[in-house]
Every structure is written in C-alpha cells, then in structure tokens.
C-alpha cells in the first residue's frame, strides 16, 4: 500500500522496483530501481522536525527490504539504505541512520542512530546504536554495539561472509524480475 503522510508527501517508487501488495510505504520515501520490498515491510517517513520538515527515507538501487522489515525515522531525520544492500527479515532500521552500499543486515537486527559503512555485515539478532561502523566490518550474531569505542572488539568481514551477502542481493534481484513478470496474477 502506498499512502501519503500527514504532510502530503507521497512515496516515489521506480517503475522497475517491486513492492509486495502487503507492504506499506508512507510519506517521503524514495525507492530506486530494481529494489525488492517484501511482504509486510513497513517504510514510514511521517515525523517532522521542530521546523516542520523531514528528510526522506531512500532505498538505493538493487537493494532488498525483506519480509517484516520496519524502516522509520525520528523527528524528520533521514534514513539512507545504499545500493545492493540487504535488510533481512524482521530487522528494524530507525533513523537517523545511514547504511552503505553492499551491506548485509541479518535477521531481527536493530539499527538506530548509526552509520554502517560499505561492505559491512551485521549478523542476526544484533543491535547497532549510536556509532559509526567502518567499511568492511563484520558484527557477529547477537552482538550489541553502542559506541565507537566498542567497535575495537569487532572482527573484519571474511570473504565467505561477503560472498553470502552478494548471493542474497543477487537472489532478490531475480525476485524483482519474477514478481514484476507475474504481478497481474495476484
């Protein structure tokens, strides 16, 4: 469902993107080309800052927002999801937040008020809050990172983990094409 926010902003979805009919996109949201947005995802840009303005939530080209993901932002702050990035099932990305290109965010992870650098991997059930994850870092499953100082114990991404992230991105690009092909069947 595509709907306006109270300010009147309407999502802009590139014609090559696929948004599942059960997903909700509300407000100042920009979805770029070949993006997959899965069932029951919610992407909502509707809160304003003290001056009544808001930055958009932008989903970069070739990215995938999987089933049950919630992306929202506090007080008009922006959220940017880079290109070829995967946000896995039931994750929460709450702005202000910037997720770089070629990033993998694992199942049930939470990102808030943070930046995740290009090529990083945040594994399942992790929390990243109030810090800047440098490019190419791996955050293991069930890890909580709440400051830049805590990043000293985080291990770099291995080639195997990068390959997995790339395969998820490729699989979801195929889903975009497949669902676009059969869109009139449901």
Automatic annotation (TrEMBL):
<dbReference type="Pfam" id="PF00132">
    <property type="entry name" value="Hexapep"/>
</dbReference>
<protein>
    <submittedName>
        <fullName>Carbonate dehydratase</fullName>
    </submittedName>
</protein>
<comment type="similarity">
    <text>Belongs to the gamma-class carbonic anhydrase family.</text>
</comment>
<dbReference type="InterPro" id="IPR011004">
    <property type="entry name" value="Trimer_LpxA-like_sf"/>
</dbReference>
<dbReference type="InterPro" id="IPR001451">
    <property type="entry name" value="Hexapep"/>
</dbReference>
<dbReference type="InterPro" id="IPR052265">
    <property type="entry name" value="Gamma-CA"/>
</dbReference>
<dbReference type="InterPro" id="IPR047223">
    <property type="entry name" value="CA_gamma_LbH"/>
</dbReference>
């Amino acid at each position: 469902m595509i709907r306006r926010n109270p300010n009147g902003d309407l999502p802009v979805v590139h014609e090559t993107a696929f948004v599942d009919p059960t997903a909700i996109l509300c407000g100042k949201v920009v979805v770029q080309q070949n993006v997959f947005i899965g069932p029951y995802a919610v992407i909502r840009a509707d809160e304003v800052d003290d001056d009544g303005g808001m930055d958009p939530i932008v989903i970069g080209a070739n990215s995938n927002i999987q089933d049950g993901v919630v992306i929202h932002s506090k007080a008009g702050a922006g959220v940017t999801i880079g290109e070829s990035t995967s946000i896995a099932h039931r994750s929460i990305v709450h702005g202000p937040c910037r997720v770089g290109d070629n990033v993998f965010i694992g199942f049930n992870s939470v990102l808030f008020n943070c930046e995740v650098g290009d090529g990083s991997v945040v594994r399942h059930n992790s929390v990243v809050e109030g810090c800047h994850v440098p490019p190419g870092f791996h955050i293991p499953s069930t890890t909580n990172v709440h400051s830049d100082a805590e990043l000293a114990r985080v291990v770099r991404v291995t080639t195997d983990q990068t390959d997995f992230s790339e395969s998820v991105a490729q699989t979801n690009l195929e889903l975009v094409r497949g669902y676009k092909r059969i869109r009139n069947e449901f």
